[in-house]
Design brief:
By secondary structure, this protein is mainly α. The protein is 71% helix and 4% strand. Keywords: Membrane, Transmembrane, Transmembrane helix.
Amino acid sequence: MKLSRVWWGLALLLLVYAGFWYWQSLTTVEPERAQSVVAQTINQCDLIASKAASALPEVLPFQKLEKAARQARVLERCMQDRGYQENPAWVAEATKQAQKMAGEQAISEAEAYETLRRQGMLAMAPTAISYWRKSK
């Protein structure tokens, strides 16, 4: 009888410990990773570009393309104003990828390049060749 109560007590303590550990793991806040200066600038310019194109209607397919083009243009101008320019190494790599992508998806090379360019403008991966480089 006493042995049974000891086991129940240990099981209860184990259950309380597991619950406490689970609660702690839910409330643990991971430290924010500091963004690079380029990433902060991209975020700021992306917000500006989104606001600049927010009033444009998107009813017809060409209007969606116009809105995307305006966002890309505003983002590019904003980054240039903050001292960044298109990286020639990225352009060379993207041109190769666009040729391959155009063949696979049966689209023009210009469309494939523009798709890669719009994605590259917002990419912040430090491992790949960055679209943006600091102006000299």
